[in-house]
Structure formats: structure tokens, C-alpha cells
Write a structure and sequence with these properties.
It is a single chain. This protein is an alpha/beta fold. The chain has one domain (45-237, 262-290): Alpha-Beta Barrel (TIM Barrel), CATH 3.20.20. The protein is built from 11 helices and 10 strands. The protein has helices at 2-13, 70-79, 94-104, 122-136, 152-164, 181-190, 211-218, 232-236, 254-263, 278-286, 295-307; strands spanning 37-39, 46-48, 52-53, 84-86, 112-117, 141-146, 168-174, 195-199, 221-225, 270-271. Strands 3-4-5-6-7-8-9-10 form an 8-stranded parallel β-sheet. A two-stranded antiparallel ribbon has the order 1-2.
């Protein structure tokens, strides 16, 4: 909660009041009308580079979902070109809340559902995935991922079978812990997967050396979690003005600064920041419009952060 409050102060203090509008064109006048999309290597299908995560933020009482601020958060997501929503049984009520919100919206064109299997045993995995479908309110899940490598050999066999049967469109694996990266690399090299999810941001660039190149070479799409390093990036820039040269890549806030750094990596497919606030959602979505920094600008951004 502390990081959310800090970010609110940043948004109020950096002339981003226009970001509160649901129309991105009124925020970034120079931005094109269409969101930036990246291709999924396995199919060529293109999805918006900014998605949304549901960890913590969507874990509320399901009965309260339709009356909660999250309904407008989700409306803003789709109004501004969002597609991929990432969840997990690990996130408490998040899947069920997501399903309840989706049922209330009429602007969900392009919806791309992503969730995870997070259990041990074949039958337990099957039952958990069926429960996820019911909670999300879908007959087919776009992306099913093995959460934090849990029982991955057993679960991957089921995921392949379900994909062959048309119950899943894509399959993948995730981690948010650096200690699993060695094993994850081996899996990516040996197993045919469509997606991989891991942490990457301007402060934590370890993935650039190993995971991102492997994903590129193996034709695996990448989902990026923890883009704000769990709020620590906002604490790093507390009291600092956004550098003027950020306008060169259509960046209007620190949140967009951090997201555009990630989105500009050629091997990143989609980023999934989580939020429970409309203005943060609109600001996040703004990172998926306009220009992205080139390689030289990315190093300038990283150097600026290192100097703080």
C-alpha cells in the first residue's frame, strides 16, 4: 500500500492530470491511435504490449467485485486497448473476481485470458484448471502456465493434452524468483513452450543476459512481472522530476518511464503491472502508445536511474 500512495503523489506532482482521462489521445497528442502490439512467436498473433496482473490487487470478496473500483479499472483497461489479463489460483479470489468483472463489461473485445496451474499431481492439476475456467467464466483459456515450476513435468503433460484438445491456446511456465532461473533455463532449452513469465525491470536486468536471449532463440513469447520491482522504483525516484528528454519517447510519467524501458526490449512480448486504481491503469496503458526508446536511449535511461 505504501508504494501505491507514493505513486499517487508522483502522478499528482508531475503534471499528469490529463492521464486521468480514459482517452489516451488527450494525454499523448502525438501518439498514434492504435496501441503497440507484439507478435507471439508460436503463431504470429499480436497482442498489446501492456497487460494487467491481478496478484494482490484483485483478491477481494467476489460478492463485492461488481460494486468495487475494480470494475472501472477493468473498463479503462479495455477502453485503452488492453487484452491480456494474468491471474492464478495462488492469488486468492483473483480469478473469480476477474470473471465477475468480465461478466459486467461489454467492451472486452480482444480479451486474452492467462492463468496458472499451481499444485502437485495430475488429477489435482486437472481439477484446478477446470475450477479456473469456471471462475473466469470461459470455455477455453488462452494461456495456461505452470506457476513457479511447481510439479512442472507432470503438469506439462496435461497442458500439452489440453492444448491438443482445444481447451488451451498456448502453454507456458513462470517464475518470479531468481533462484529458479537455472532450472527455468534448462526447461526452456528442452521443452516446447509458447510463453515464459519472469521478472524484469530497469533495476533488475538479469534476464537480459540469459532468459530473454533463450526465449528469442526458442521462439517463446515473454510475459514480464514485477515491472516496478514491487514499488521500489517509485521510492528511488521520490522527489525527482521526470527528465525532459523522456518526451522524446512519448513518456509522461515515471510509471511510463519504467514500462517503456521494458516494452522497448525486442524480446519482450507483454508486461503485466497490477493496479487497483483507475488513474494508475490509464497511466500504465499510456506506456503502450507512442514511441519507444531505442537502444541508445535505453542505456541513457538505465544510466540515469543508476545515478540516483
Amino acid at each position: 500500500m505504501k508504494s501505491c500512495l507514493t505513486r499517487r503523489r508522483f502522478l499528482q506532482a508531475t503534471a499528469t492530470a490529463a492521464a486521468l482521462s480514459p482517452l489516451l489521445s488527450s494525454r499523448l497528442a502525438a501518439a498514434p491511435a492504435e496501441p503497440i502490439k507484439k507478435a507471439i512467436p508460436a503463431s504470429g498473433e499480436r497482442i498489446s504490449v501492456i497487460g494487467v496482473g491481478t496478484s494482490r490487487t484483485f483478491d477481494i470478496d467476489v460478492e463485492d467485485a461488481a460494486q468495487s473500483p475494480l470494475l472501472e479499472v477493468m473498463r479503462a483497461f479495455f477502453d485503452n486497448g488492453g487484452q491480456l489479463i494474468d491471474s492464478s489460483p495462488m492469488y486468492g479470489n483473483a480469478e473469480a473476481v476477474t470473471g465477475a468483472l468480465l461478466a459486467q463489461l461489454d467492451n472486452t473485445a480482444g480479451l486474452f485470458t492467462a492463468t496458472k496451474v499451481w499444485t502437485y499431481g495430475k488429477q489435482e492439476g486437472i481439477e484446478q484448471m477446470r475450477r479456473s475456467m469456471r471462475r473466469l467464466g470461459v470455455q477455453r483459456i488462452d494461456l495456461m502456465q505452470i506457476h513457479n515450476l511447481r510439479d512442472w513435468r507432470v503438469q506439462l503433460e496435461t497442458l500439452r493434452q489440453w492444448k491438443a484438445e482445444g481447451l488451451l491456446r498456448y502453454i507456458g511456465i513462470t517464475t518470479s524468483h531468481g533462484r529458479y532461473h537455472d532450472e527455468l533455463e534448462d526447461i526452456l532449452r528442452q521443452q516446447p513452450l509458447d510463453f515464459v513469465q519472469f521478472s524484469y525491470n530497469i533495476e533488475n536486468r538479469d534476464a537480459e543476459d540469459r532468459l530473454l536471449p533463450i526465449a528469442r532463440d526458442r521462439g517463446i513469447a515473454t510475459l514480464i512481472n514485477r515491472p516496478y520491482q514491487r514499488g521500489s522504483l517509485f521510492r528511488r525516484v521520490k522527489g525527482k522530476e521526470l527528465p525532459g528528454w523522456a518526451a522524446e519517447f512519448d513518456c509522461a510519467s515515471w510509471g511510463q518511464f519504467f514500462l517503456k524501458f521494458i516494452a522497448s526490449h525486442p524480446d519482450v512480448t507483454c508486461i503485466i503491472p497490477a493496479t487497483s486504481k483507475v488513474k494508475h491503469m490509464v497511466d500504465n496503458m499510456g506506456a503502450g502508445y507512442g514511441r519507444l526508446p531505442d537502444a541508445a536511449m535505453r542505456e541513457r535511461m538505465a544510466g540515469y536511474m543508476a545515478s540516483l
